[in-house]
Amino acid sequence: MIRFENVSKVYPSGVQALKHINLEIQPGSFTFLVGPTGSGKSTLIKLLFREELATEGNLWVFDKNIELLSPSEVPRLRQQTGVVFQDFKLLPQKTVWENVAFVLDILGIPKAEQKKRVQGVLELTGILHAKDFYPRQLSGGEQQRVSVARAIVNKPPLLLADEPTGNLDPDTTWGIMKLLAKICKTGTTVLVSTHNHSVVERMKHRTVKLDTGSIVADSGQGVRTLGK
Amino acid sequence: MIRFENVSKVYPSGVQALKHINLEIQPGSFTFLVGPTGSGKSTLIKLLFREELATEGNLWVFDKNIELLSPSEVPRLRQQTGVVFQDFKLLPQKTVWENVAFVLDILGIPKAEQKKRVQGVLELTGILHAKDFYPRQLSGGEQQRVSVARAIVNKPPLLLADEPTGNLDPDTTWGIMKLLAKICKTGTTVLVSTHNHSVVERMKHRTVKLDTGSIVADSGQGVRTLGK
Amino acid sequence: MASETHLPRQMLYTLQQSSQNILRSPLMSLIVVSTMLIALSTLGFLLLVMSDLNHMSDEMATQLKIVVFLDDQQDIDKIAGDIEAISGVKQPLVKVDREQALEMMTQDLPDLKEILETDNPFPASIEVAVTSIELMDDVGESIRGLVGVEDVQFNQELSYQLEKVQNSVQLVGAILAAVLILATLAIVVNTIQLAVHYRHTEIEIMRLVGAPHWFIRLPFILEGLIFGLVSSVLAAVLLLFWRVVPYAQLRQWLGFLPLSDSLMPILWISGLLLVAGLGVGSLGSLLAVRRYLRLEV
Amino acid sequence: MASETHLPRQMLYTLQQSSQNILRSPLMSLIVVSTMLIALSTLGFLLLVMSDLNHMSDEMATQLKIVVFLDDQQDIDKIAGDIEAISGVKQPLVKVDREQALEMMTQDLPDLKEILETDNPFPASIEVAVTSIELMDDVGESIRGLVGVEDVQFNQELSYQLEKVQNSVQLVGAILAAVLILATLAIVVNTIQLAVHYRHTEIEIMRLVGAPHWFIRLPFILEGLIFGLVSSVLAAVLLLFWRVVPYAQLRQWLGFLPLSDSLMPILWISGLLLVAGLGVGSLGSLLAVRRYLRLEV
Ligand SMILES: Nc1ncnc2c1ncn2[C@@H]1O[C@H](COP(=O)(O)OP(=O)(O)OP(=O)(O)O)[C@@H](O)[C@H]1O
Ligand SMILES: Nc1ncnc2c1ncn2[C@@H]1O[C@H](COP(=O)(O)OP(=O)(O)OP(=O)(O)O)[C@@H](O)[C@H]1O
Ligand SMILES: [Mg+2]
Ligand SMILES: [Mg+2]
User: Fold this and answer.
1) Using a 6 Å cutoff on CB, does residue A209 contact ligand 1?
2) What crossing angle do the helices spanning C156-198 and D156-198 adopt, rounded to 10°?
3) How far apart are CA D127 and CA D66, in angstroms?
4) Cα–Cα distance measured from residue B11 to residue A167, given in angstroms and rounded to the nearest whole number
5) Number of B:D CB contacts under 8 A?
6) Ligand 1 contact, A17 CB (< 6 A)
7) How far apart are CA B131 and CA B119, in angstroms?
8) Residue of C nearest to A88 (CA)
9) CATH domain D65-154 topology
10) Tens of pLDDT along A41-63?
11) Domain ranges of chain C
């Protein structure tokens, strides 16, 4: 599903965010990405849907070397990848409902079908009551849940979640994490970056640990977490 | 220092974010504000520096009823209040250094003095290496630390931190929390909203718990946390 | 591209997005439309004024006369008929027979009149006006060629003078119009770019969640078209209003000037503004959105 | 307000902020300056053209002559001296004595010449040009009052005609200038508002961390002033260039038209553009920032 081959990323500012990453992620697996702030978790995720381009190495996603995608192929890649952004990235001029429906609009899904699906995910993420509000009218945690809802609404084969529970209380965090695990069960490959160690420890999934751009620990293809 | 008298807040959207809040916070104390997402923590904090106005009740800060402040008195209030925003609110066109120095510019502090102070807080928050970067060039956790640095740089008598560690790893979280506690020791009144229960439990400060806009628990004026 | 079955849905979606964007950023929309309105109506006003000046100077030109002196033996009415047949000649002609000519020439010189009473040396003449001052020379030449015409006189210097004035007004008007057309286009494109710039985070987010270029672009282009439509129609209404109310007043005050009262110019100018508005509106949007889409890695 | 000791520091800070803002949003700055430049130079161009048209029609007017007929016994040079003393009379005068007059009047009528050889009824005359066409009537009247002047003739109808043309060109020019000045102001204010609008998050953040209004406003206003300064200076340079290169060409091609080659109008127009640029730049910023600051609860 995903294969990093000696991937490095140096930002134009000169910061080396990733150093010679080699990593393989199996289809349908659930992987945690952990590491101190600034260790390169978000950068690694951004490479996977071409928000950023690697400066070295090769990166396969969906069996394609995405470093070689032409600009016109990029939207297709992104349509197959649900992303929960660390900073939410909700469209400010659209309501909660419209934000989530937007990705279905892109796919040309009929309104009736959209309605069913959007309603479903907003219920799952517990934010249906706010469906007619604009993002600026929501609390931090509510915005984060909308971002989760948008990422999963079109049932993408790949789901990337960058710190999806940073603004959530422990109960809601658990709810979202269980939701992600459930989605993984349906065959979706899930990659979650997080600082929440108690979640990582309790969920017992594969865990990859980054530090200053390198992988310093990997619990392996199995389903065990790293030892604390 | 702070006194809420029957304060309620209804947003124009009709959402009642706070219901009849009565709360007193002593000068120089350290208080945690906890509660599920959407329970009104950010709203309560926003009232304290007049980002929002209460729709009912009275609110005293620095022995002034701030509901009655004229628009021209608001900047003074905000200059005495350091705020770590949940969404950072860094100036996108200014570097890390300039963002932090900006609040000293407002106070008309000479450049030489600014230099010393900015350098100091950037070191304390561990972000000095990024001083010439723009916010968009930083990771989530790095931006959050800049926001903390800006809030404390002018040594305000009141410090409000809204989820200041949501994007930080456990080690950095502890560093920031200890920093806030140290600042509190110098006489600053500190109010921190957070979802991080392990921090709240370990730090043993007064803890106020909100739920759907009401105070549902308060460990009292002492320094003990709520029982889980 | 949208598959065929998606096309009507896509059109509906685009229309809905555009109107949403316009209505949810009312201040933005207002600023863009008002800038376009101001630019287009200034342009329209200049074009209208030029068209009116043209008409007016043509009118004035017809007050300059060609004087045609006749052979003594000719029938003045027959020659007048010949002259009227020349294209560019304005009806009716003014005929002066020999007696009237003598009368006119000698009215200030009673001495001379006595001398000439018996032997009138002045020929009959016809005064001819032309419909446009450039025709003066040609018409004069044609008349000179007619049988029975002894001499043709007109103030050539003066007609050249007036023609120069007309030409220079037209030249200057054309330069001004060209400058203003370019300025209008550039300003409107700039303004729309600023408005799109304002929404670059939105564009960025749309791209990140997988929206293809055309999907992002279409609503912006339609928005530009709507802005162009609204502002050019408003500009046309303004021009019409100017013509019907303040200009009508002006015509009364300036009764001595031959000001046109035709609504025809408004018609073609409005058409032109519509084309310009739609063109610039969509072009501006396209250029601006492209700038952000080109950033695609 | 800033306490006295802070004032120089505040000024330095403001200047530094403004230049930072301009340089860190180069696209934005470019769009704003180019819009202002286009608007101001269009305005300047119109004003220049009007001033030139004015000059040109004055020049043309001097080609219309007043003919002064003299008493038979007068000394033509003495009266010419009297006429030259009248203000509005253009030097030199053209003098026609009695013999020249007879020659001119009879050159097409050899019969008449024979008859009049011994008894010349035509008076001596002086042709007078005026410096501006409005003076025609007054100068004519003054000359009529001179001793030794028998009659004064000039093509009154024609002079009225030309005056009408002049007046209408001036009137239309003034209306156009007024329209364009208003349009320029409105467009520039709009554009700056869009640019400020773009930065409303910044303004909001500055407010939230305690920046007083004047502290936020000053850099914006200074920025508006800088934009105004840069674009009006550039507009003046453009005008100067137009005058020195393409216009000079035009004057050669249109040699028959009395086109002005003075650089004077550029001077006052540039001054005016500078004032307009600075005024509108700062006003636009002020209005736009105020809109956001007024939201303060
Ligand atoms: N757009 C950018 N331009 C330049 N440098 C960047 C950019 N984005 C991130 N960086 C730098 O790259 C490094 C890795 O950043 P990244 O966002 O991947 O960290 P992270 O692991 O997600 O951290 P966090 O837990 O704080 O979100 C950091 O040092 C950061 O400053
Ligand atoms: N600007 C706003 N306009 C309308 N409603 C708002 C606004 N801000 C917050 N709300 C609503 O008020 C309630 C309380 O929001 P608040 O941001 O105070 O919650 P919070 O406790 O900070 O939550 P979180 O932990 O998710 O940050 C929520 O239901 C939210 O939707
Ligand atoms: Mg990150
Ligand atoms: Mg909050």
Assistant:
1) no
2) 10
3) 6
4) 21
5) 62
6) yes
7) 9
8) C205
9) Alpha-Beta Plaits (3.30.70)
10) 999 999 999 999 999 999 999 98
11) 2-60+161-296, 65-154
CA D287 to chain centre: 30
| Predicted local confidence at residue D28, as pLDDT | 87
Look at A169 and B198 and tell me if their CB atoms are within 8 Å: no
**Within a 10 A sphere around the Cβ of D212, how many other Cβ atoms?**
19
- Cα separation, A148 vs A142, in Å, equals 10
Cis before C92? omega within 30: yes
The per-residue DSSP string of B163-182 comes to STTTTS-HHHHHHHHHHHHH
Considering only CA atoms, which of B188, B142, B138, B136 is closest in space to residue B165?
A: B142
Residue B184: closest CA among B1, B44, B16: B1
Distance CA B179, CA B201 (A): 17
ipTM: 0.87
Distance CA D235, CA D176 (A): 19
Instruction: Give the mean pLDDT of chain C.
Output: 82
Predicted confidence at residue D40, as pLDDT, reads 93
What residues of chain B score a pLDDT lower than 70?
221-228
Cis (ω within 30 of 0) for the bond into C121?
Answer: no
Q: How far is CA D220 from the centre of its chain?
A: 32
The token duo for A138 is: 């929501």
Residues in chain C: 297
Query: How far apart, in whole angstroms, are the C-alpha atoms of residue D49 and residue D242?
Result: 11
Half-sphere exposure of C96 (CA within 13 A, CB side): 17
Sign of torsion, CA C149 C154 C160 C166?
negative
CA atoms of B85 and C133, how far apart (whole Å): 77
The per-residue pLDDT for range A144-157, each reduced to its tens digit, is 999 999 999 999 99
* Integer CA distances (angstroms), C220 to C14, D35, D62, D237, in order: 9, 21, 58, 36
- Strand A158-162 relative to strand A81-84, pairing: parallel
Report residue B169 as tokens: 């790893």
Q: Decide: A21 and A28 in contact? Cβ < 8 Å.
A: no
* Smallest CA separation from ligand 2 atom 27, residue: A140
Ligand 3 center from residue B142 Cα (angstroms): 9
Q: Using the predicted structure, report yes or no on whether residue A209 has a pLDDT greater than 50.
A: yes
**DSSP-based three-state secondary structure for A88:** coil
Average pLDDT (D73-98) is 81
Question: How close is the nearest chain D Cα to the Cα of B4, in Å?
Answer: 19
| Model confidence at C165: pLDDT above 60 | yes
Burial of C232 (0-12, 13-18, 19+ CB in 10 A): buried
Which ligand gives the minimal distance to the CA of A208? Answer: 1
SS3 for B36?
coil
